[in-house]
Design a protein that fits this description.
Number of helices: 10
Distance between the termini: 33 Å
Structural class: alpha/beta
CATH topology of the domain at 2-171 and 223-250: Rossmann fold
CATH class of the domain at 2-171 and 223-250: Alpha Beta
Helix content: 25-40%
CATH superfamily of the domain at 2-171 and 223-250: NAD(P)-binding Rossmann-like Domain
Strand order of the largest sheet: 3-2-1-4-5-6-11
Oligomer: single chain
Shape: globular
Radius of gyration: 19 Å
Strand content: 15-25%
């Protein structure tokens, strides 16, 4: 039986597919390649399709005798979600309903869902645990929280068990150098800093230097993409073993500021990071750091690449060599 990985040609999805294949779990990637990459399709089988097409989903579930699903496919630009919420609710929420309904019809009752720390909104305490108030600041965050609520309802009505993993800041690249980050529109700090150092992009914009943090710049929890992938595999094993549904943060429990990230990139690259200071962005919180206690206790998950310098080194090695066509 197969594991359907929706959005498996993307950044986190492709790393997870590689781990699933190494574990002998027979991954099948379902992706429309709107932001994923053909060069990332190196493991398992590939079915090109779109979640907006319910018949395509049903056909893939039947053709591959799927026993569980890992769902990564989503639009992720927070700012764009504010200016075009309809696009985000359709792509992230409505399309997920198509997937869930197809799963119910096919008798597939286990799903690992890519949620986000964006469900929390402005933190009232740090680190954030899963019982923190949920008050998303954007339609992107709303869409993730809406799906979490739907998953709980689908369990009560249809017996669908789920794991919703609330990511903090995914970062780094495959230590083997086979995969890494390559978004069509890059918005993540570490690759933007590396690209600035390499002269491949504009100077890095540092949004806000007057936050109530030790150096005045925003602090975030960076979790290595391979550790995120391992969390998905562990969650899948938990559900396959009859484990109960759960929601959990995925982060290392430690924060790094924008200036610390820049300094680490400069240390790893041996190059300066050209940058410019800019005002704070609306909705950006001073500090977002996970309390990862639940996932560590429930799944015995522990990050293997928790040091910022190692995360940056893997991202640096990837960025220098990554495929650059068709981004």
């Amino acid at each position: 039986m197969s594991i359907l990985v929706v959005g498996g040609a993307g950044y986190i999805g492709s790393h997870t597919v590689k781990l699933l294949d190494a574990a002998g779990m027979e991954p099948v990637v379902f992706d429309n390649l709107s932001s994923g990459h053909e060069w990332a399709l190196r493991w398992g089988k590939f079915e090109r399709g779109d979640l907006a097409d319910p018949e395509a989903i049903r056909a893939v579930l039947a053709r591959h005798d799927v026993r569980a699903v890992i769902h990564f496919a989503a639009l992720i630009q927070v700012g764009e979600s504010v200016t075009d919420p309809s696009k985000y609710f359709r792509a992230n929420f409505v399309n997920t309903l198509n997937l869930l309904d197809a799963m119910v019809g096919a008798g597939v009752r286990e799903i690992v869902f890519s949620s986000s720390a964006a469900v929390y909104g402005d933190p009232v305490r740090v680190p954030l645990d899963e019982d923190h108030p949920l008050a998303p600041l954007s339609p992107y965050g709303d869409s993730k929280l809406m799906i979490e609520k739907v998953l709980a309802r689908y369990e009560r009505a249809y017996g669908m068990r789920s794991a919703a993993l609330r990511y903090f800041n995914a970062a780094g690249a495959d230590p083997d150098g086979e995969l890494g980050e390559a978004h069509p529109t890059e918005s993540h700090l570490i690759p933007l800093a590396i690209q600035a150092a390499l002269g491949r992009g504009r100077p890095l914009s540092v949004f806000g230097t007057d936050y109530p943090t030790p150096d005045g710049t925003a602090v975030r929890d960076y979790v290595h993409v391979n550790d995120l992938a391992a969390a998905h595999v562990a969650a899948l094993r938990h559900l396959a073993g009859g484990g109960a549904s759960f929601v959990a943060n995925v982060g290392i429990g430690r924060g790094y500021s924008v200036k610390e990230v820049m300094a680490t990139v400069e240390k790893v690259a041996g190059l300066p990071v050209p940058h410019q200071l800019a005002p704070r962005r609306p909705g950006d919180s001073p500090v977002l750091v996970a309390d990862p206690g639940r996932i560590r206790g429930l799944l015995s998950w522990k990050p293997q690449h928790a040091e910022l310098e190692e995360i940056v080194a893997h991202a640096w090695n990837w960025e220098r060599r990554r495929p650059r066509g068709g981004e």
